[in-house]
Amino acid sequence: MGTMKFEVPHTLSKDEARKRVEQLLKYWIDKYGVKADWSGDGAKVIGKVMGINLDANFTITDGAIQGEGTDPGMLLRGQAKSYLQKKFSTVLDPSKSASDLDKGLA
């Protein structure tokens, strides 16, 4: 299997972006049972989300979340990338509060 790269820009502080991404990871842990290990400003996530194997690393920078993960193959690549972009964009939306995020993740 190859690697799929993704990048989601944000305008939040790095600390705020991390707090919000932690909410997303908690959602994935609770809903799908994934495992997440933080190291500095990045995390490794392993598990299955919506039936797709997820083995990804990402880093939070001042202006974006950058990452790469196992490419699920041509048939699921677009769906997987779209899902990641949507979820990260939702949590990184500066117009949403923490309680809005919990509603938006479901």
Describe it:
By secondary structure, this protein is α+β, with helices and mostly antiparallel strands. It has a five-stranded antiparallel β-sheet, covered by helices on one side. Helix 1 packs parallel to helix 3. It is globular and about 35 Å long. The chain starts with a strand and ends with a helix.
Quick description:
The protein has about 110 residues and is α+β, with helices and mostly antiparallel strands. The protein contains 3 helices and 5 strands.
Q: What is the share of helical residues?
A: 40-55%
Poorly predicted sequence stretches spanning 5 or more consecutive residues? none
Strand content: 25-35%
Helix/strand/pairing class, anyone?
alpha+beta
Mean pLDDT: 88
**Total count of strands:** 5
Largest sheet: 5 strands, antiparallel
What's the total helix number?
3
Q: Strand order of the main beta sheet, please?
A: 1-5-4-3-2
Q: Tell me the span between the first and last alpha carbons.
A: 29 Å
Rg, Cα atoms, Å: 13 Å
Give me the strand/helix succession: EHEEEEHH
User: Overall 3D geometry?
Assistant: globular
